Amino acid sequence: MKKTFGNIPLSVLDLAVILEGNTPADSFRYSMRLAQKTEALGYLRYWFAEHHNMASIASAATSVLIGHIAGGTSTIRVGSGGIMLPNHSPLVIAEQFGTLASLYPGRIDLGLGRAPGSDQATARALQRDPTAAYRFPDTVQELQQYLSADNKNAAVRAIPGEGIDIPIWILGSSTDSAHLAANLGLPYAFASHFAPQQLHDAFRIYHQEFTPSAQLSAPYTMACVNVTAADTLKEAQLIATSMQKIFLGILTNDRKPLQPPDASFVLSQEIAQVMKQFLTYSFVGGPEEIRTGISKFVDDTQVDELMVVSHIYDLEARLRSYEILKELHLAAN
């Protein structure tokens, strides 16, 4: 069946963004508000991403936040988008997510990435083996083994974790991860919200090389995009200056908490061109602009699920953005 905006699930990516003038504790309260709102609206998943040493992001202890949000909701799936596995022992992740899945059965997802989620100095501070990223396929399979029921006679066991159904996803921002997800027969999520260049090639590789597994019988893809929706185009463009500032900080290595909207903010032509490459799949506008842009994206990619991240300073405006997107989604059914 042809995928359209109206017939695929919508999900949420949250970085627990820290706002200028606020604390991480505030961010966690805002995340709970957003999770409860999007659950009520009918979004399928609520994922956190692991990042470290970033003044604007409070989701470093990803599994802790997953438990917090799962405990404050009742139906939405909660998970990682993702856990950066080279930073961790596969056994520890199996135990952590086994614990989460025991507490919240049928609701926990485990998305895995190979990047450090940080700069190299921070990666070393995490006691990360510099060769760990190269062994990512092996550590994914090691983690799968700990979670499998047939590991019960092994010398090392993940308890809790062993034998619990915890869907594993492979995350990617390049074609490398597409080969791995296909070979292991796992669902594949692509970070097109900041790395759009190889999205289409990665999906093509994944579909061509996919091998069915015990977890998944057919390919399943998800793409993440930036969405800033408001009741009018003018309002959305103003709100989106916060997103532009946070990406400018990444480009210039001047990272700060998320800034309020700024009507006077203007990018230089050179920076605007570079940023456009990062934010190709960023949809900013009123309902009509969002509907048109998202519909075309789904038509072009034939993605099975759409995940949305919104770098919006004001909580009520952020909640409204997800509300508008869901209203458009329902209208497109």
TrEMBL record:
It comes from Marinoscillum luteum. Keywords: Oxidoreductase. This is LLM class flavin-dependent oxidoreductase. It holds the Pfam family Bac_luciferase. One of its GO terms (molecular function) is oxidoreductase activity. The keyword Transcription regulation does not apply. SUPFAM superfamilies: Bacterial luciferase-like. Residues 21-296 form the Luciferase-like domain. To bacterial alkanal monooxygenase alpha and beta chains. It comes from the Bacteria. Its EC number is 1.-.-.-. InterPro entries: Bact_Lucif_Oxidored, CmoO-like, Luciferase-like_dom, Luciferase-like_sf.
